[in-house]
Amino acid sequence: MTPDLHARLLHAMQAFQGRVLFIFSSADLTAQEFLDMCKASPSWQRLLAKPSVQQHTLDGADHTFSRRAWRDQVADWTGGMGGGMVKRVLMVAFHFPPLRGSSGIQRALKFVQYLPALGWQPLVLSAHPRAYVNQGPDQMAEIPPEAVVKRAFAIDAGRHLGLARPLLRLHRLARPLRQLVPGRRAGRPVAGAQVPARKWSGAPTRLPARP
Predict the structure, then answer these.
(1) What is the span of the domain harbouring residue 34?
(2) Which pTM was predicted?
């Protein structure tokens, strides 16, 4: 760690007034470098001794917490920082079960699965399943009960509006509109009744290629 980075990090930590949690992996060289720096710095020792700072060391864990047991322990420690207060995050995700065949599904679904353990309730605004060409119930059971899922009116323009070649121009326009107009109406009760502290949005659907 360079002296400049050391000084900037220390200044930022001293200015921060909230609660801080440090989780160290015992088999992580980066964590060991940080701990060695703290041992050599009276300023860091005073900072780490503050009541608002908590520390945990995960024995045997590597830098990325690559084992499930390590990740679960990190989630437990981090969730305990919330003090029982549930925060809500509004997640706008077109790529969401029962859709199949998109990497974006895993991104949104994993956030929804792990956020409750960290003190966050996911409020998911997604699309009606009729908009998905490839769909199935495989991952529906993986949505945790803590998540609130609201589905906006949506159609697949290629299948539902592609009646003739002259409508291809409408096809290109309708695809993004299927999310924007109905989605705003459907999102109001989700966000309005349960005000989210954060908002998250997945990647938009791709427009069809020009003929």
Answers:
(1) 3-82
(2) 0.48
